[in-house]
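Reviewers of the previous submission asked for a worked example of the structure-prediction workflow described in the proposal, so we include one complete record here. The input consisted solely of the amino acid sequence. No template or homolog information was supplied to the procedure at any stage.
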Amino acid sequence: MRSIRLTFLTFLLFLMTVPAQGARIKDIAGIGGVRDNQLVGYGLVAGLAGTGDDVKNGFTKETIVNMLIRQGISMTGRDLKADNVAAVMVTAKLPPFAKIGTKIDVNVSSIGDAKSLQGGTLLMTHLRGADGEVYAVAQGPVTLGGFAAGGASGSTVGKNHTTAGFIANGAFVEKELKYDFERNRSLAVNLYQPDFTTSMRLASLINSRVGDVEAKLVDSSSVLVQLRDSYHGSVVGIISLIENLDVPVDSVAVVVMNEKTGTVVMGENVRISTVAVAHGNLSIEIKEEKKVSQPLPFAPAPPEGGAPAAGTGANQNVIMGPGGQTVVTPESQVTAIEEKKRMMLLPQGVTIQDVVRGLNAIGASPRDLITILQTIKAAGALQADLKII
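From that input alone, the workflow returned the following structure tokens.
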């Protein structure tokens, strides 16, 4: 019994000596109710150099007609022909506490058959929230991250995407969202990555560093901060004090692997048990070469009938003269090489450096690591969650 207690105390001392990386609360959590809001609108981009929508499609033509009618131009009985206008969807994010007149960025995306939005100007577009209310108005020249050009023969050249653009500070906020912080006597601090250990540390840190408040652990992602009656200061000041505190962040052991690029990222808490690994590759290389036999300029011509010249065998490689023939003979070389690596013993890793050092010992490339880690996980020797993207 005494030995069990000593072992448990030793384990606790080990946990206390493991360095925990701290991060500001504002970088790992947000205040409940304080967030961005999505805005969306439908509009027109004009001024395109013949790369706009075909007005035969209904919604673009109808939008142009309605826009001209609002400008006092009647389109009754007229045949509309235009290829320098494109129908687009405009999206933006309304930041919290944005005031009337604040400028925000907008994204512009074609929804018709326009070939490019290059050189276009977004006409005044209302941006609405989820409640249907107009919160911003967007307008301005569209900036693209690429280009496209084509010739009369149909050949084209381009770079990046040309049917989606961006307008920096392209919208003005016209309506504010209401926030009444001063009346609130409680605040929720929500972690971006839920974790019980981090939440417990967060609540304990707030209670020890911030006066006149009480932090309670709600769940793995939320800590409720209640202001006591003795506090008469600003709620904004409390939030500023809380979000600048450094809290040790804990996380689960994760190995993220991208099979497309061969990228492997391992978290700090990844551990590996003692395991033996052997990894080898079989590579097969095939080389094809074409050899050409060209007759010499003064070689004797072959006799009539195509028979070989005197003194030559039928299977010999004879170079003929002016009457000879150029012969192309293919040659193939096939080589198979199998790497024979001896089995390596990977000892139990205590840190991520030990794990990486052990995997490098067998000469594994990043793409090899994906297969090796999957196999080690299947053997139950990898104490981490595998995520393949």
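The helical segments are 2-17, 25-28, 58-70, 196-209, 235-243, 352-360, 366-378. We consider this example representative of the routine output the project will generate in years two and three.
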